[in-house]
Write a structure and sequence with these properties.
globular; 5-stranded antiparallel β-sheet; 28% strand
């Protein structure tokens, strides 16, 4: 397991609730290397998971570029605009590097918390979940061939996880000159728990298992360990990355 990239920004006074979290990434039990990258923030402002696309080669480089660009976001910025701007910058840099013959790409999910509101941006099939009490809610929608089939009524929700094309993404950073980014905004309250993850986790664990593990530990670090350990016990055919942030009373 590798150590997440960590940034230490200025704290914003007067914001309630207080956010804190942790991240963990593992290469899994099948892949030769870990092409995921994660970003954690001690102040609870900015978090991200990027999943490098090994099929394109140099996926670890692509995910590192995405995380590096996101890490430059200022705390007092306009969240949707800042997330989009940095992902566009990452897209341009990856494309520039592919001109030398090293094709690569990355999916990503990122969250920027300001004034107890989470702005989430994503491209591909990395996911963001919100646990509020016992209820788990998926905040993102996968950009995949299978999700498009579900949306068109060609495939049922129960069939998606076993479909042979479930990992085929329709969007990724660094693949096309035009990058489509989805965003959503979610108000947060004390007690909420946010999970960002690569598809290496959701391949191994269903939503019910994720909900149970996300609520099982009193700390973000413990929660990350539980989630990754469960994925490894399930076989972990892909890299597994998680970031967990808790909202707590001050």
């Amino acid at each position: 397991m590798s150590t997440p990239i960590t940034r230490v920004p200025m704290m914003m006074p007067g914001t309630a609730p207080r956010f804190h979290g942790a991240g963990l990434t593992h290469r899994g039990l099948v892949r030769d290397r870990n092409e995921d990258s994660i970003l954690t923030d001690p102040s609870g402002m900015l978090w991200a998971v990027a999943d490098g696309m090994g099929g394109y080669g140099h996926g670890d480089v692509a995910s590192d570029i995405v995380i590096d660009k996101l890490s430059h976001i200022a705390d007092d910025t306009l969240a949707p605009q800042a997330l989009r701007t940095q992902l566009y910058a990452a897209n341009a840099e990856i494309l520039a590097r592919t001109q030398h013959g090293n094709q690569m790409g990355s999916t990503v999910v990122a969250v920027l918390v300001q004034n107890a509101t989470a702005t989430i941006a994503w491209v591909g099939d990395c996911r963001a979940y919100l646990l509020r009490g016992p209820a788990l809610r998926l905040l993102t929608r996968d950009h995949t061939v299978v999700q498009d089939m579900v949306d068109q009524g060609l495939l049922g929700d129960a069939e998606r996880e076993n479909h042979p094309e479930r990992h085929v993404v329709t969007r990724a950073v660094g693949v096309e000159h035009t990058l489509d980014i989805d965003t959503t905004i979610t108000p947060l309250i004390a007690g909420d728990r946010i999970l960002l993850c690569s598809d290496g986790l959701t391949t191994c664990l269903g939503d019910q298992e994720i909900a149970g593990l996300l609520g099982a530990s009193p700390t973000p670090e413990g929660t990350c360990n539980l989630l990754v350990r469960a994925a490894l016990e399930a076989g972990a055919p892909d890299n597994v990355s998680v970031v967990v942030a808790f909202a707590s009373e001050r």
